[in-house]
Design brief:
Length: about 260
């Protein structure tokens, strides 16, 4: 069985057929879904889905492009959610994004650091978003000076940087981008690093793997990502399935029951 370690099935792209999509995941052997929130509204939607479906597990956080939601008590609110909801399996989506808005870099870093602290305090893995900010992302993570757990979500950086994140204790999240012809970096990362470093994710409804690129993404496409990894490494897809599921189960520390 597969685990999609990063999906947004609360997105309105699924409003017309969410139940069918979720059921199809089970049929396609994608048996567990980590539903990633990124602001107050989506944290709640992720929690609601996890209350409805046993195999959906929520994460809660604040995304660097959603800082309008930020206030002094945001972290108290996050902490209360964590205490009240035993099913929460991670912190995030959090991180740095200099692509959309470079005007609040200091605040982005502060909000990211606070979520790293929560991850350490509650022993919950971080779901890390990094866009056009990979150097600063590494620097902030390093500055904490403690062992970390989490995923570099939708990783598209260099092999060298991937090794740095792995040294900190993080896994590399591989998504649909690995199937794109021009995804040189990700293909190299997959080729050179051991399977023990990877978890699979769709980030749906975005970043749909080939041959459905441009259409809506969904967790049941996870096997297409596994197939590409198997082809790049010249191994059986079964090995990719077993290793990445095992990695996800270890990372989320037995919370995916
Ligand atoms: Ni995402």
């Amino acid at each position: 069985m597969y685990i999609d370690t990063h999906c947004h099935i609360f997105d309105c792209a699924f409003d017309s057929d969410r139940i069918e999509v979720i059921n199809k995941c089970q049929e396609e052997n994608v048996k567990k879904l980590i539903v990633v929130g990124f602001d107050k509204e989506t944290n709640k939607l992720a929690l609601d889905l996890s209350n409805t479906y046993d195999f959906c597990y929520p994460t809660v956080g604040l995304h660097p492009t959603n800082l309008d939601d930020y206030s002094d008590n945001y972290f108290l609110y996050l902490e209360n959610l964590i205490k009240e909801n035993k099913k929460i399996v991670g912190i995030g989506e959090c991180g740095l994004d200099y692509y959309w808005d470079k005007s609040k870099i200091d605040l982005q870093k502060e909000v990211f650091k606070k979520q790293i602290e929560l991850s350490i305090k509650y022993n919950l893995p971080l779901i890390i978003h990094s866009r056009d900010a990979i150097g600063d992302t590494l620097e902030v993570l390093k500055s904490v000076g403690k062992p970390l757990i989490g995923v570099m979500h939708g990783y598209s950086g260099s092999l060298e940087m991937a090794r740095e994140f792995i040294k900190l204790g993080l896994k590399i999240g591989i998504g649909g981008v690995v199937t794109f012809k021009n995804a040189k970096n990700v293909k190299e990362v997959v080729k050179e690093l051991d399977l023990s470093n990877f978890v699979l994710e769709t980030d749906c409804p975005y970043l749909t793997p080939t041959p459905y690129r441009g259409k809506r993404n969904a967790p049941y496409y996870i096997p297409l990502i596994a197939k590409e990894i198997a082809d790049i490494k010249g191994i059986d897809i079964k090995k990719v399935e077993e290793a990445t599921t095992n990695n996800a189960n270890m990372l989320f520390g037995g919370r995916l029951l």
